[in-house]
Amino acid sequence: MRGGVSKLLGAGGTRSRVITQLPQAGVATQEAAKDNSISFKDAREAYRSKKTSEVLRAYLVLSLCGVKPLVDHNEKLMKLGQTILGKTLFGLLMKQTFYGHFVAGENKETIKPVISRMHSFGVKSILDYSVEEDMAEQKEEKKTSRKKADEAKSSHGEQLAQYTPIDESEHKEVDRKHKLNSARVYFYQGEANCDKNMQTFLECIDAVKGSTGGTGFSAIKITALGRPEILIRLSECIEKTRRYYTQITGKKGMVIKGNVNRACFEDIFTEKSIMDNNPDVQQFLQNMVGDKDGIIHLFNWSSLIDDGKDLGDVFQVPNLETGKMEPLITGDDDGALTRDEEKQFRNMVNRLHTIFKYAKSQNVRVMIDAEQSYFQPAIHRLAIEMMRTYNTDQAIVFNTYQCYLKKAHKTIVLDLEQAKRQNFYFGAKLVRGAYMEQERARADLLGYKDPINPNYEATSEMYHKVLDECLTRIHKLKMDGDDPQKIGIMVASHNENTVKYGVQRMKELDLDPQERVLCFAQLLGMCDQITFPLGQAGYSVYKYVPYGPVNEVLPYLSRRANENGSLLGKVEVERTLLRQELGRRVKSGQFFYKPKGTFVPVGFN
Hints:
By secondary structure, the chain is an alpha/beta fold. It contains 25 helices and twelve strands. It has helices spanning 3-9, 23-26, 30-35, 43-46, 52-64, 68-72, 74-95, 98-102, 112-120, 149-160, 191-212, 228-249, 262-271, 279-287, 301-305, 311-314, 339-362, 376-390, 408-422, 436-446, 456-479, 496-508, 528-536, 554-565, 568-587, and strands spanning 124-129, 217-220, 289-290, 296-297, 316-318, 325-327, 365-368, 397-402, 426-431, 487-492, 518-523, 541-547. The strands form three sheets. It has an eight-stranded parallel barrel, surrounded by nine helices. Strand 7, helix 18 (376-390) and strand 8 form a beta-alpha-beta unit. It is globular.
């Protein structure tokens, strides 16, 4: 990345280090980065930013997360608590326990002390306004019928069935909220509600600017900004486009390796006798766009995203038998898109433009969260088009890559290549993924190949392969005398081995922390033994910081309780470290320790 944002992203370091108070008010120098080693088992360094009362609270909360009956029934218990105690008293109780541990505060003013203290210990912030409705109370707007599984398979075939909206009420195992502990779900409740969600995201950008001085991130979900069925239809269209390309060219795999140009299509159309005296086919050929490396794109996405053309007008191809133009994208009735559907898509794109235009004006970076695989082709394409528009001199738009997907490496290679060819700055957040059970159940139900890697080890291997792809490209930029910050990566992981892998590869590729090309991120209230040692050692590292009124973030707190309850091994590591730190403070007479950090995060020297 470049400019102001390049000063903020930060990088993984050159080798492991022991955490010490750094010179120059905690600024990590290159010498410190090379000479020290890092440990994720040092309780003192992990919790030096916490008061003893906060260490006690963390130990209590994580211990309760290990009590299975409490975790299994946490939603009912919280509702019961509200009923018995009243919302005011219940809110005070939650602030002293779960809310106080996992949430920074109620609004953009009350979160400032938390953000400021983390900053003084070398940690920056990603803000998320985590108010959401109780899932049981959400009413999704349903204007059209959705298919049952057998209908989807019979009408679309196995693979295209993946991109078919189905009736989730008939198939609970693939309901978007089924067994989902780690991610928020947005349901479509009309265009006015999408506008409301957009306004919330804009206010979150303001909070980032006001609370972090523009150094943090904000996060959005595209399903909050429009009708999800439109994304599924667009994903299906992208898959149909790939198949049409293969049918015409005989080339399988990635387009960038096909070496296909416009003449190839002209030859096929001439052979099929559908081009002469057919102005529609001739116009289709003229509308094909290529980049500086000659890579052909069947459709002009900029005309769709920037110029306001309709989906139905852009996504149509010549039938090889009749020469007539046929749509690749269909509406709810499998016919042409209606004017309402076209308007819903245009509204979604306009909301994205509004968010990113404002984010760029405020110098705040925004991450587009990943969602279920049947949304992802459309989400990826929209994210890349937003990068092309707004990442012209620094990375404002970041896309998320789910490494539990079998195609994760292929996807990021395609996107990295497009960023290189079209000369825009590329930002990526790497995660493992949050929808595994749903994805596997849906693939089994509809009869298409499971898109998820077979096991955790395969996912870790994919994560490291994707990370290595990015880091080696950054290294090449540096060796070629180009700006290595054209690629910015966030490793959003609670896995120590993955974090250590990133650190080690930075060392091997001679990429220094001060080059600010890699950062790390963990959730507030989780894995402090990773976050704070990284920040205090001179790495660029973030906490994902939720905020909102206490009685309105209960669904978020419920997910955190469920997530920690399912990761008992990792939670036990944290509990052991917390217990060690409590014992150390008692023995050393530091029970009333007041944290005062003098560290400065990477990019602020």
